[in-house]
Specification:
With 143 residues, the protein is an alpha+beta fold. It has a single domain, classed as Double Stranded RNA Binding Domain (2-Layer Sandwich), CATH 3.30.160.20. It is built from 4 helices and 5 strands; from the N terminus they run βββαβαβαα. A hairpin with a 2-residue loop joins strand 1 and strand 2. Helix 2 crosses helix 3. It is elongated and about 95 Å long.
């Protein structure tokens, strides 16, 4: 039996589809950055999500994370905010869970509506009122 990993509440995927590796963080930081490999890089094979999530959710995930998906169809996320591997690993898994939760939300379908008769009448009355104000601004004629 293959091991399952929970990537989002109620969403499980094969452990072989997720690879977390560690490397040195970039930027200033002194001895900790120069010596330790604490940056967590996550690679998730998107093909592993086809049976787990709906096709529409996978499509939304692709649009949400389009800059983080490479040509081999792997989602690449990284975290280097913390000083330990464990905290960065947890942070990158939290980022993944957040992305998947956002992709699961189905957008509401917009149903076009028509203005009511009263709304049309109010709009036309306001236009007539404004027109009257502007027509009163013209040159003063001879009396």
């Amino acid at each position: 039996m293959t091991e399952q990993v929970e990537i989002s509440p109620g969403t499980f995927v094969d452990a072989s589809a997720i690879v977390v590796s560690f490397s040195r963080s970039s930027g200033p930081g002194g001895q900790n950055v120069n010596k330790l490999s604490t940056k967590a890089d996550l690679r998730l094979d998107l093909h592993a999500l086809t049976g787990v999530l709906r096709d529409t959710a996978v499509a939304r995930l692709r649009t949400l994370a389009r800059n983080k998906i490479n040509k081999d169809d792997f989602l690449l996320l990284s975290s280097q905010e913390h000083r330990t591997q464990e905290m960065n690993r947890d942070a990158v898994l939290a980022k993944l869970a957040e992305l998947i939760a956002a992709a699961r939300i189905e957008p509401k379908v917009r149903r076009p509506t028509r203005p009511t008769k009263a709304a049309k009448r109010r709009r036309l009355d306001a236009k007539k009122h404004r027109s009257g104000i502007k027509s009163g601004r013209g040159r003063v004629g001879e009396e």
